[in-house]
Design a protein that fits this description.
It is a single chain. With about 625 residues, the protein is an alpha/beta fold. It has 2 domains: about 400 residues, 3-Layer(aba) Sandwich (Rossmann fold); about 120 residues, GMP Synthetase, Chain A, domain 3 (2-Layer Sandwich). The protein contains 19 helices and 31 strands. An 8-stranded mixed beta sheet has the order 12-11-8-6-7-14-15-24, sandwiched between helices. A hairpin with a 5-residue loop joins strand 25 and strand 26. It is globular, with a radius of gyration of 24 Å. The model has no long low-confidence stretch (mean pLDDT about 95).
């Protein structure tokens, strides 16, 4: 059986109706075309209270057999990964399905040689080089659980994630290049591992050739290790519900949590959404500009495209090196057909002006996409006109680390689109809008809290090592629903528009941070007694980070104090979490019970001073005046 792509609005409507009427039959039909070692016993068993969700239970498979082996007879010589290096003058690499299969098998044998077993957690901290894809798939090949940590996170963040997952293995590189910068990678891992005595082996890939320290007995070079293995590595047989990976993401409380996805459902859903949302056709070149360190890279650089037998472009560099035309140059160079990026990138390139766009034809593009945060109308129109040349449908795809794949989006050219609306739920996805009290709002033309009332195959299964946290975060606020943390609007015809987070999560340039997480980092600075962080609208980043800080002692040199605080945040989380504004205050607006009234801080950061609301319940109302007067 082969995959049937939805090709018209009527087909979408029919598929959607069928997916709600009989989800079991619907998803069984979508799962048919994969290679299963053994078919499933039941399509779906679920209970959102526990929560417990099982898709295709009893089914046996290996996702890499579906990404690689399955394609060898028909697409062996086709390019699987098309790698564009940071340096525009450097050679691109075209890795065929056959070659990728070979490299994954060798890497998997290296993992086995070094003691990695099925079920072991493996931390991957690597730049955007082909070896990163190989490493991810090598873990999946032998049933080890990969935990990729974005290569911009600090040593402390890596250590937290290694310890939480109890990972004994780390895969990394000597260094990395991004734009004009040469960044040490192994040295950051070395620092992290000072607090991770449980790590037994570090496997290092060469990228820059820069000197690194290798700890005898713990660290080995990948290029030496491959000499000891062959390319024969049968895929491990996995249960559909065995974990495939952990990916850490921020929430409104505490430390980042390890979102767990499993093999069968994730496979079926990423493939289904990849083909339908982007309307992928056999010889299309697909480029997702995300980093593999985020869910978008997992699902739409690696798994979705490879499951579909596509050519997936992987870019090592940044959009502004050597200049702000780099994305467009790469699109022309590799004749990219489908381009998928983030609003923050669109806005920053838009700000650079059309001189960087005009030299390129962009004629190969058929579909353009957006992900990670709401795309404002101005950016949407610019993208449509100047990149899509008014000739490409835009898919505004709404989803989350926890959802594994796209949940709400139009399908390119098939269902209609509307600026700033993600629009239509994917078949199988049943969104609802709730009131704050948890009542379903049935009418259209309304706003509410976005929740999902039925499982889809790649829904989060648990948070690693702490199932209760998964239950509390996503399934307890509103009984019987998966709660997204986002607010949304439904228009008169049923399209969804995502408004933004309703919890204490800030989405900066498409990256999620909990306010508490950033506050904890700021508070580690010796300059700080206490802090409170809120988001505010930012022209390029979507949201910026505004920090109110009570200093330890009177500040004589605010610039120096700010620099020290930024350095602390960089050390604790990474440079991406640095506040945009730091205001020193003598106190924070607290209620008599000691709770910070963030609503007031948000209003001040947004410069909406007229609507501060009732401040009479505050312990010290005078502090609001001081904060307002000294607003940055
Ligand atoms: C936001 C990224 C509006 C949203 C795939 C969500 C979006 C969070 C969109 C998840 C979109 C993602 N329109 N908002 N198209 N896509 N978001 O886990 O607030 O990094 O809850 O997953 O990003 O971020 P995450």
């Amino acid at each position: 059986m082969s995959f049937h792509r939805i090709r018209s609005n009527d087909e979408y409507r029919a598929a959607y109706a069928e997916s709600v009427r009989d989800p079991h039959a619907f998803w069984a039909a979508q799962a048919e075309h994969f290679t299963w070692r053994k078919k499933w016993d039941a399509v779906l068993e679920w209970n959102f209270d526990a929560p417990e969700v099982k898709w295709f239970s009893g089914g046996k498979l290996n996702i890499t057999e579906n990404c690689l082996d399955r394609h060898l007879s028909t697409r062996g010589d086709k390019t699987a990964i098309l790698w564009e290096p940071n340096d525009p003058g450097g050679p691109a690499q075209r890795i065929s399905y056959r070659e990728l299969h070979d490299r994954v098998c060798r890497y998997a044998n290296v993992l086995k040689r070094n003691g990695v077993q099925k079920g072991d957690r493996v931390c991957i901290y690597m730049p955007m080089i082909p070896e990163l894809v190989v490493a991810v798939l090598a873990c999946a090949r032998i049933g080890a659980i990969h935990s990729v940590v974005f290569a911009g996170f600090s040593a402390q963040s890596i250590a937290d994630r290694i310890l939480d997952a109890n990972a004994a293995f780390v895969l990394t590189s000597d260094g990395m290049v991004r734009g004009a910068k040469n960044i040490p990678v192994k040295a950051v891992v070395d620092e992290a591992l000072r607090s991770c005595p449980g790590v037994k082996r570090v496997i290092v890939t060469q990228r820059t050739g820069d000197p690194v320290t290798m700890q005898e007995g713990r660290d080995v070079w990948m290029h030496m290790e491959t000499g000891f293995v062959d390319a024969d590595c049968p895929a491990e047989e996995m249960d559909a519900e065995d974990p495939l990976f952990i990916l850490y993401t921020s929430g409104s409380t505490g430390k980042p949590k390890g979102v767990v996805h499993t093999c069968g459902g994730y496979m079926v859903y990423t493939d289904y959404t990849f083909r339908n949302v982007f309307q992928y056709e056999e010889n299309d070149v697909f480029w997702c500009t995300a980093d593999v360190g985020w869910i978008t890279g997992h699902s739409y650089i690696i798994y979705g495209p490879l499951l579909a037998g596509a050519t997936s472009l992987m870019f090592e560099g940044v959009p502004t090196f050597p200049d702000a035309g780099r994305f467009w140059q790469v699109i022309d160079k590799h004749q990219v057909n489908i381009f998928y990026t983030a609003p923050t990138a669109i806005r920053s390139l838009m700000a650079q002006g059309l001189d960087f766009v005009n030299p390129y034809s962009l004629a190969s593009l058929k579909v353009i996409g957006s992900v990670g945060e709401p795309i404002n109308e101005e950016a949407w129109h610019w993208y449509k006109e100047h990149i899509g040349k008014n000739n490409c449908p835009i898919v505004d795809t709404w989803w989350q680390t926890e959802t594994g794949g796209i949940l709400i989006s139009s399908m390119a050219g098939v269902t209609d689109e509307k600026p700033s609306y993600a629009a239509w739920p994917i078949p199988g996805v049943q969104p609802v809008l709730l009131t704050a009290e948890g009542k379903e709002i049935l009418e259209n033309d309304v706003e509410g809290l976005l929740a999902i009332k039925f499982p889809w195959p790649s829904i989060i299964r648990t948070t690693y090592g702490d199932h209760e946290r998964c239950r509390q975060t996503y399934f307890s606020s509103y009984k019987g629903y998966y709660f997204t943390g986002d607010g949304a609007r439904r228009d008169s015809e049923g399209r969804y528009r995502i408004i933004g987070r309703v919890d204490d999560v800030i989405n900066v340039s498409g990256h999620r941070f909990g306010t508490a997480e950033i506050e904890n980092a700021i508070n580690e600075s010796e300059w700080v007694v206490e802090s409170a962080v809120v988001g505010y609208p930012h022209d390029i980043k979507g949201q910026g980070i505004y920090a109110y800080v009570i200093p330890e002692k009177p500040i004589t040199d605010p610039d120096q104090a700010r620099a020290e605080i930024l350095a602390t945040v960089t050390k604790v989380i990474g440079p991406i979490a640095k506040p945009d504004k730091i205001q020193f205050v003598s106190g924070l607006p607290k209620t008599r019970s000691g709770k910070i009234m963030r609503r007031i801080l948000r209003k001040v950061a947004e410069n909406e001073l007229g609507s501060l609301g009732d401040t009479s319940t505050l312990l010290d109302p005078a502090v609001v005046e001081e904060i307002t007067n000294n607003r940055l």
